[in-house]
Task: structure prediction
Amino acid sequence: MATTFTFHLPTFLDRFLDEYEFLYEARDRVAGYDEAVAEFDKTIAASPNFAKFVAEFAAYREDPITSDREAAAFMFTFYGMLDEEEAA
Result:
């Protein structure tokens, strides 16, 4: 994942919060939840550009990603917005 990510942070945050709320209401019983958490952990360790974007997002929201639910919400948002960019 050598790409530099240029998502609009206010939009990313809005979608992240929507994903987080969905996961909270579903008590994390969502298809792909465990895989999203594992992918977050794997990708942040393997991709400096991804780690940089996570850090930028955490600084923007003034709160680091610290829970599995936040990690899953981040990945659902991340891949959703990547798909939209590729479709445009």
About this structure: Residues 9-87 form one domain.
